[in-house]
Amino acid sequence: MAKITASVYTSHVPAIGAALDLGKSGEPYWQPVFKGYDYSKQWLKDNPPDVIFLVYNDHATAFSLEMIPTFAIGTAAEFTPADEGWGPRPVPKVIGHPELAAHIAQSVIQQDFDLTIVNKMDVDHGLTVPLSLMCGQPQAWPCPVIPFAVNVVQYPVPSGRRCFELGKAIRKAVESFDKPLKVQIWGTGGMSHQLQGPRAGLINKEFDNAFLDQLITDPAGLAGKPHIDYVREAGSEGIELVMWLIARGAMSDVAGGPAPKVAHRFYHVPASNTAVGHLILENK
Using CA atoms in the order 17, 19, 21, 23, what is the torsion angle rounded to 10 degrees? Predict the structure, then answer.
C-alpha cells in the first residue's frame, strides 16, 4: 500500500522565485533565505518520494474571481507553469499522477469532503516556488506532483479545523491506494504577512514561531485557532497557514502513531515583505 513518509512546510514567496530565476540567490539579501534550504535539498535527495501531494493556493491564475473552488485537486498528466503577468517562470513543467489523484479524489469525496476535480490548469508560484526551494533548478522535477489548491484568497475560506480534518481524509485515501508508493505531503504559504492597507508589511515573529511550535506538538489544538486570530496576529495573508494544517493532519501521529521526527526547522525575516518559515517532519 502507499504511505505518507513525511510532510514539508514552506512559504511560497513569489520574490524568492524571481531571485532564483534572475540569478540573485547569492546576493547578501537573499543568501540567508536560500541557505536555510541547503539541508532540505539534500534531505529530499536522501529521502526521495514517488509522489508529492502539494497543497498551495492559486493567486488568480488558474481560478479567477468568477469561479473559486474551496478545495481543488489536479488530476491531469501535466501542468504548465502559469504566466502571472511577466511570463511563465523558467522552470520545468509539472508532471502529475492521474491515477493516485483520481483515487484520492474518490476516497476523499466518499469521506464527505467536496472537492473540485480539475483536469486542466496552470500552476503558479504557490506551487513552483516550494519546488524550487526544495529542488533547486533541475531540468525536471524529481517526481510527479499532485497539485491541491485551497481558496485562502477570497472569503469565506475554510477553517483550520476543516483543513486538519481534510488532512486525515487524505492520509486514509493514500493508505488505501494499492501500489507501494512513498508519498510526501507539502503544506505551503505564509507565514505572517500583509500586502495592503495600513498594516502592509506586518511581520509577527512571535506568532510565527509559536505556530511552528504548536504545529509540531499540538496540531489538534492549533486547528481550533479562529480566522480572526490569523488576521489580527499574522496579517491578512497569514490565513494561508491553514494549508499547513492539511499536511499536518495527514501525519501518522494524528491517527495514533508515534510523534514525528523534526528533521529540519528554519525561520527567517525578511524575504520581500514576508516572514519565511520552513519545517520538515518525518513519520516514524
Answer: -160
Domain 3-282 CATH class label: alpha beta
pLDDT block averages, 10 residues each, the chain of length 284: 97 96 96 98 98 97 93 98 94 98 98 97 97 98 98 95 98 98 98 92 96 98 97 95 98 98 97 95 97
| Strand bridging mode 145-150 / 51-56 | parallel
Q: How many residues does the chain have?
A: 284
Q: Own/partner pairs for 58-63, CB < 8 Å, 24+ apart?
A: 58/121, 58/123, 58/124, 58/126, 58/149, 58/153, 59/14, 59/84, 59/124, 59/125, 59/126, 59/153, 60/153, 61/122, 61/124, 62/118, 62/121, 62/122, 62/123, 62/124, 62/149, 63/121, 63/149, 63/151
278 is catalytic: no
pTM over 0.90: yes
* Nearest CA-CA partner of 55 in 204, 142, 156, 166: 166
Residues forming beta bridges with residue 95, ordered by sequence position = 78
The structural domains of the chain, with segments of one domain joined by +, span 3-282
Integer Cα distance of 211 and 222 in angstroms: 8
Q: Catalytic residue among 12, 103, 125, 278, which?
A: 125
The three cell numbers of residue 2 are 502507499
Residue 103 designated active-site = no
Name the catalytic one among 12, 97, 103, 193: 193
